[in-house]
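Notes, p. 3: input format for complexes.
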Amino acid sequence: MDKLSIIRPDDWHLHLRDTPYLEAVLPHTARQFARAIIMPNLQPPVRNYDDASAYRQRILSALPDHSDFQPLMTLYLTDNTSAEEIERASQSDFIFGAKLYPAGATTNSEAGVTGLKPVYPALEAMQKHGLVLQIHGEATEHEVDIFDREKCFIDTSLKSIHEDFPNLRIVFEHITTADAVDYVASENDFIAATITAHHLLINRNAMFTGGIRPHHYCLPVAKRELHRQALLKAATSDSVKFFAGTDSAPHARDAKESACGCAGIYSAYSAIELYAEAFELTDDFSHFEAFMSVNGPHFYQLPINDDNIQLEKTSWKIPESLDYPNDELIPFKAGEILKWKLINND
Ligand code: NCD
Ligand code: ZN
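Output follows (346 residues plus zinc ion):
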């Protein structure tokens, strides 16, 4: 098989940042995907309807001419997000969910929630009004080993949220462990998970191959090989609960290659091709279209896209670096050869 044609995919977890960085990264995503769930962790965060509406306008203004890419907006939950704010957001036709960041868990999460109880009124309103809850699922207690934070979060927080709000649709974002795969697979249809291309392609060794590799550092951090294999098995399975969300998270080269480098991998440049690379490892593309283009819209209760994309098996090289204001941006797998190429979008 050397050609693939699938329904146009969407990216169910994406960081676009803001002007002028937004203008540098948005064309990469808009070239490939029809829609994306836009993460709200700007500084200051996208906290309410007005913030989301203004941010959406900035994204639409930054789109290349003739692009019909649609940003699907989310709110950033804080200890003070009110039920009224959630209700207002739910009445819009462009806000689809709200993101729960445990305070301190990741980039720009300082304004995140300090515990579950403060956010319960907002979750109650989300359940009532049908907004999807996106969760960064990592425990933040310093004594919890960084490689155990996802598993710990399932036990200490995710199970309670799911039990206390049985009709709330939850996306466990960018899962990295066999524990998360097993939990999501064993629960009912109100809980699903996104999986990034990078977590399908690298394990934690990639951060330390021959020295420290800051461009392989993201949160949640990549785990052992057995976990990568569990993710790959889930993504390529017939389960409808797993779908693509790149978590592409641009940081300037200087901010990555630093004594305290930022967390985030920039995969948007070649996102679909990277997912194809991961499926290629299993030699089984039978559920590629479902994972990329069907399971996500199904969970979000949105229509699937009405056009197709084509990929061709041909080797090509990811650039060493990309343009970024006042610096450069190093894409995931910079300078490496990929086996699949998107052919109808150049
Ligand atoms: C993201 C970012 O940079 O905004 N970083 C990351 O490592 N994934 C935040 C996040 O999704 O955790
Ligand atoms: Zn993210």
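The pocket of zinc ion (ligand 2) is lined by residues 13, 15, 39, 247, 249 (CB under 6 Å).
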